[in-house]
Automatic annotation (TrEMBL):
One of its GO terms (biological process) is L-histidine biosynthetic process. Binds 1 zinc ion per subunit. HAMAP family: HisD (MF_01024). Its EC number is 1.1.1.23. NAD(+) binds at residues 126, 188, 211. CDD domains: Histidinol_dh. Keywords: Amino-acid biosynthesis, Histidine biosynthesis, Metal-binding, NAD, Oxidoreductase, Zinc. Catalyzes the sequential NAD-dependent oxidations of L-histidinol to L-histidinaldehyde and then to L-histidine. The active site is at 324 (proton acceptor), 325 (proton acceptor). Substrate binds at residues 234, 256, 259, 325, 358, 412, 417. This is Histidinol dehydrogenase. Belongs to the histidinol dehydrogenase family. Zn(2+) binds at residues 256, 259, 358, 417. It comes from Candidatus Termititenax persephonae.
Length: 432
C-alpha cells in the first residue's frame, strides 16, 4: 500500500507533487459554465433548482433563520463550545498581527505620498458541508475578514440531506457574529455570490475550499469576483531522520490521507530502518481508522516514502515539492526550516502535528496546494483588504519634477502626459 523508493526520487516526486490541482475535464467545465449562466439569469430560482438536483433537498428559502443561528449554541455540549472559543481566540490573536496600517511619506518640500488600506465591502465565505461539518473552515475564513474590517460577511454552505445546517457550524457562526448563512453549495453558490441574486448579495471576494465543481466555478468567474486561490487536493511532506518516532510519522501520514482519495502524503528520510518501521506502523494503525477506505486509496496512488543518501538534499527536495504542509521531524528541525523557501505552513518537531494547525494553534489552514506555495501564501487579513496609492504634491514640488516627467513621457511617446504637467504652469501646451 505505501511503497518505499530509493531511486529516481526527483522524477517520482515531480510526478506526485505536480499532479494537476484542477483537473476537471471538458464535460465538467461545460456543466459548470451552464450553471453559472443559469444563476446569472434566474437568480434564486436557479440556485434552488440546482440544490434540488445535486443536494436532493427541496428548500423554501435559501437563508438560514438568524434566530436558528443564535439558538444553536444551546444545542452543542459545553466542551465543544469552549473548544470553539479557545480556537477563535488563538486564531484571532495570530491574525491580529497581520492587520496593516495606512501610511504617508513626506516628499519634497510640501508634498506627500502614501498607501491607504481599506476593507472590502462584502466577503463571501464558502464552507463545505452536506454530510459533514467543518466549523474550522468557517473560523479560518471569517476571522481574518473580521479583523480586516469587512462590514458584511456572507456564508454559503450546502444543506444536509434534511435541509439543515449542523448545529456546531451555526454555533461557530454565532460566536463570530455572523448572521447571514445561505443554504447552497457547489458552482451555484459561487455564481450566486459572484453575481448576486434576489436573496444572496454580490460579494467582492469569495474564499474557502470546495469540490471540483466549486473550484471550476472559481476559475471561470475569475475577474468577475475576487478569489483566495484555486485549491486542489490537500498534501503533506514529512522530513524525518533517525530521531523521529515511526508511530508519530505514520499517524501524520494517515491523518493527511483521510482528507480525500486524491490527498498526497509523502515522507523523505535518510534512514532506511525508519522507512520500514513507518510502513509497519501505517499497516497497524490503519486497521482502527474509520476512513480506512479513503486512506488506502490515497496512500496507494499519492503516498510514498523516499529514502535518500544525502541528508543535504532535504531542503532542495522540499522546495521542489513546495508542499501545502511541511512537517520537519529532524534533530535540527528549526535550522532546516529556516532554509525552506516553498511551503504553505511548516510544522517543526514531534509535537507540532498538522492537526494542531488545522484546528487550534492560530495560523490559517487555508493554504496553497499542488506546489503553488512557490508563489502563493496562506489566507490572511491582507486577502480582505484593498490598497490605494495616495499622492498629494504642491505646485513647487511638481515644478521641480516637471523636467524629469517631460523627459520620461517623451521617451514613451506619450505627449499628452507631458502637456498635462505644462498646463499647470500657465505655459503653452507643447506640441511634438
Amino acid at each position: 500500500m505505501l511503497k518505499i523508493y530509493t531511486d529516481n526520487i526527483e522524477e517520482r516526486l515531480r510526478q506526485i507533487a505536480g499532479r494537476a490541482a484542477l483537473d476537471g475535464d471538458r464535460r465538467e467545465t461545460k456543466a459548470v459554465a451552464r450553471i453559472i449562466k443559469a444563476v446569472r439569469k434566474s437568480g434564486d430560482r436557479a440556485v434552488l433548482k440546482y440544490t434540488r438536483r445535486f443536494d436532493r433537498v427541496r428548500l423554501s428559502s435559501l437563508r438560514v433563520d438568524p434566530l436558528e443561528i443564535a439558538l444553536a449554541r444551546e444545542q452543542i455540549n459545553r466542551d465543544l463550545l469552549q473548544a470553539l472559543r479557545l480556537a477563535i481566540k488563538n486564531i484571532a490573536d495570530y491574525h491580529l498581527k497581520q492587520v496593516p496600517k495606512s501610511w504617508l511619506l513626506p516628499v519634497g518640500q510640501k508634498s506627500r505620498v502614501g498607501l491607504r488600506y481599506s476593507p472590502l465591502a462584502v466577503a463571501g465565505v464558502y464552507v463545505p458541508g452536506g454530510r459533514a461539518a467543518y466549523p474550522s473552515s468557517l473560523l479560518m475564513s471569517v476571522i481574518p475578514a473580521k479583523l480586516a474590517g469587512v462590514p458584511r460577511i456572507c456564508v454559503v454552505t450546502p444543506p444536509a440531506p434534511d435541509g439543515s445546517v449542523p448545529s456546531v457550524l451555526l454555533a461557530a457562526a454565532h460566536e463570530l457574529g455572523i448572521a447571514e448563512i445561505y443554504l447552497c453549495g457547489g458552482a451555484q453558490a459561487v455564481a450566486a455570490l459572484a453575481y448576486g441574486t434576489e436573496t444572496i448579495p454580490r460579494a467582492d471576494l469569495i474564499v474557502g475550499p470546495g469540490n471540483i465543481y466549486m473550484t471550476l466555478a472559481k476559475k471561470l468567474l475569475y475577474g468577475v469576483v475576487g478569489f483566495d486561490k484555486l485549491a486542489g487536493p490537500s498534501d503533506c511532506l514529512i522530513l524525518a531522520d533517525k530521531t523521529a518516532q515511526p508511530e508519530l510519522v505514520a499517524a501524520d501520514l494517515l491523518a493527511q490521507s483521510e482528507h480525500d482519495p486524491l490527498a498526497s502524503s509523502l515522507l523523505i528520510t535518510d534512514d532506511a530502518s525508519l522507512a520500514k518501521k513507518v510502513v509497519r506502523e501505517v499497516e497497524r494503525q490503519i486497521k482502527r481508522l474509520s476512513r480506512r477506505e479513503i486512506i488506502e486509496k490515497s496512500l496507494r496512488t499519492y503516498g510514498a516514502i523516499f529514502v535518500i543518501k544525502e541528508r543535504s538534499a532535504f531542503v532542495r527536495l522540499a522546495d521542489l515539492v513546495a508542499p501545502e504542509h511541511l512537517q520537519i521531524m529532524l534533530k535540527d528541525a528549526g535550522a532546516v526550516a529556516e532554509q525552506i523557501n516553498n511551503a504553505g505552513a511548516i510544522f517543526m518537531g514531534a509535537y507540532s502535528p498538522v492537526a494542531l494547525g488545522d484546528y487550534f494553534a492560530g495560523p490559517n489552514h487555508v493554504l496553497p496546494t499542488g506546489g503553488t506555495s512557490r508563489f502563493a501564501s496562506p489566507l490572511g487579513v491582507d486577502d480582505f483588504i484593498k490598497k490605494t496609492s495616495l499622492l498629494e504634491y504642491s505646485k513647487s514640488d511638481l515644478k521641480l519634477a516637471r523636467k524629469q516627467i517631460d523627459i520620461l513621457a517623451k521617451a514613451e511617446g506619450l505627449t499628452a502626459h507631458a502637456s498635462s504637467v505644462d498646463a499647470r504652469f500657465g505655459k503653452k501646451i507643447a506640441t511634438f
